Amino acid sequence: MNKDHGPHIKNDEQYEALRDQGMSKSKAARIANSPDAGEKGGKSQPYEEWTKEALYDQAQKVDIQGRSSMNKDELIHALRNN
């Protein structure tokens, strides 16, 4: 059974799974609180096929710092390693 992490975590199940994978509390919370948290994955195109604008929007959703000065490759790297 999943813990209830209170109103500051939107998707408790996903948060717990990410923490079990070794992610920090803040990173797990950012992902679990993203607008599309908990949606089934695997249907999205690879980041290389996204536009820079779409990458920027995703970086904004997960609060990547310095995103406004990043080029497309840097945004991809930041999204994958955030």
How do you describe this structure in short?
The protein is mainly alpha-helical.
Give short descriptive properties of this protein.
82 residues; mainly alpha
Explain the layout of strands and helices.
Layout: H1 12-20, H2 25-32, H3 52-61, H4 72-81
What report would you give on this structure?
The chain is mainly α and 82 residues long. The chain folds into 2 domains: 1-37, no CATH class; 45-82, no CATH class. It has helices at residues 12-20, 25-32, 52-61, 72-81.
How large is the share of residues in beta strands? under 5%
Query: How many domains?
Result: 2
CA gyration radius, whole angstroms: 14 Å
H/E element order: HHHH
| Separate helix tally | 4
